[in-house]
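Model it.
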Amino acid sequence: MPVIRVALDVPVHTLFDYVAPDATERDVGARVCVPLGNRRMVGVIVEMAADAATASRRLKNIFCIFRDAPPLPADLLDVLRFCSAYYHHPLGAVVMHALPARLRSPEPMAGDPGAARYRLTAAGRAIDPSVIPARRKIRRQLLAQFQESGVLRRDEARRRSRSAPAALEEFVQLGWIEEFEDGPRNASGEPAESPAGTGSMVAEALPPGLTLTEDQAHAVRSITSAMHDYHPWLLQGVTGSGKTEVYLRLIAHVLHQGRQALVLVPEISLTPQLEAVFRARFPATPLIRLHSGLASGERVRAWLQARQGAARIILGTRLAVFTPMSKLGLIIVDEEHDASFKQQEGLRYSARDTAIFRARHARVPVVLGSATPSLESYRNAADHRYHGLFLRTRANRGASLPAIRCVDLRTVETRDGLSAPLIAALAERLALRQQSLVFINRRGYAPVLRCKSCAWVATCHRCASRLVAHLREKCLRCHHCGHQERFPQACAACGNQDVTLLGHGTQRIEAALAERFPEARILRIDRDSTRRRNAWPSILEDIQAQRVDILVGTQILAKGHDFPHLSLVGILNPDASLFSTDFRASERLFAQLMQVAGRAGRADIPGEVLVQTEFPGHPLYQALRRHDYDALAQELLAERRAAGFPPYVHQALLRAEAPQIATALAFLDRAAAAANPTSRVQVFDPVPAHMARLKGVERAYLLVQAGSRSQLQAFLSAWRERLDALPGRKVRWTLDVDPLEF
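Modeled.
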């Protein structure tokens, strides 16, 4: 009897063997339903048992092999194995993470989008439904429906009546309809027109009148000349330099070869605008989106189209890196520096780094694009591990980089968070009918509610954080766990009614601007205002149509958006990051400020950026004024080298969570004692996390550091086995390789 090895979503690093009477090598990668204890679980067959003696053991039989969707291809299984090994996460959990939720269900996908459908034939179109006897009402109605719509999904037809399946079979026998596999669909879920061939897919790839800058042309020539094999490219371009146009030319090249392109973006909010650009350039090319905001059926349908090769452009957030593709030809990681590419719970993988491994394994090029590359990527390009390409000027011939100046808050007063120079600049833009953006990276109305009498501050009882005031909703809310409570009428400690709000959030700035400029159309854009499904397309449409005068937003606005009518950016309260304990804080702050500043002056309108700061002479702000990322990157790299920080060392965190902090720290002490590090691996003392309590759980961590990635991985592999054996009944622990948050 054939024996299969199955990866199951359980917290152990092992595979499970089962007897599968009808399994063959072709089923490797297929989903399977198996018994585990008294549960029915879905897993994935990752290999056939090589040792025939294995079959003699007393193994359980599987329930079934699902053949309602193609199996995971061998190359993707290799990527998943890499993630399991590198991030020290159970293979079953990694494999399940890569599957759409619908495919993790123990029920087959009968009637699922992507299942077989029926379409009317020429013979069926010629039949008058009235020739069907009136007593066969269902058959008459079905034929009329086919003649009206042309196509029906099998489950839609069968839901009409119990006799519908027999009617469908009869129509097939008569040649009136035929069964076919569901093809690619467009964004609205309707079937997309199939292109006549690869030529039609790229017919719009070179629009007339659009010429590349010299830097763009060099980048396109360099990458397209090396499409035959794995090459990592770092495309560093100033904001507005036309990185997207380079992506479009590369995608056109890949489509012309009959292959697929995978494009990763850090945020869901970036997909609508980029999707619109892709569809305008390649109107006949099947394109799908993949991100966590999709409905279950929509995601599985898109996943299947990519797997079958029907979708030619795959656009998505980090989870899209695990999309199966039969004709992968190119991977693009836009805004590669963004921390959103690193998952911060469960499987703590970096989609950027996984994309690089996948490209190397598939022997295709990978392009990392950014105006402010991560220092890891920047160093790799400097050391020639990546090929560096530079876009030094804005692509629009009439556009120039915005003028950036600092407003010195030591000498200039603010009212409601707004300085006089910024207010004057906003008034000037309103008079010119140009758009402005006021950037403050803090949601809510105010970050602190404080008692004037006893200095009590409203805090979350589940997290080590303050509650943020949301005045419109008349509540206090924790932005970490979601806890919410009514706005208090008095101090919870002393009963004094004189409580005050300190600091500014987007809601408070929005209110201040509305009071200052009552005639202005003001739009606040943050996570609170964009919760509604599909909110982004309508927001972007309002901005592009100039139905908005002033935008107030958080970092959600700083990434990749193109607002041609926006000429002014005001940046509020950036100074806190200058004094953070996080060694990456300066790198992130500069990237954020450079990105948000880059929203100004992208068309023919000159741009201006005002940064309100108490430290105008700080080297970071001086580099920002010069748009000189290279100078800052080299300075930060020198600091990192001297301090022994990444990218000159490699790190991992052992994170522990428990009901009490003492329990978490005690577990980490035992873990440190079991570490047995070599002289080339450092194990630091356990410490409470920066936010020690989160969602009612106490957190601590232990840092491990090594001079090379191979040394760190060898240590972690041996250490993890000892960690599995440690007592820790009330402790939940995870390994975080290449951590970005502490």
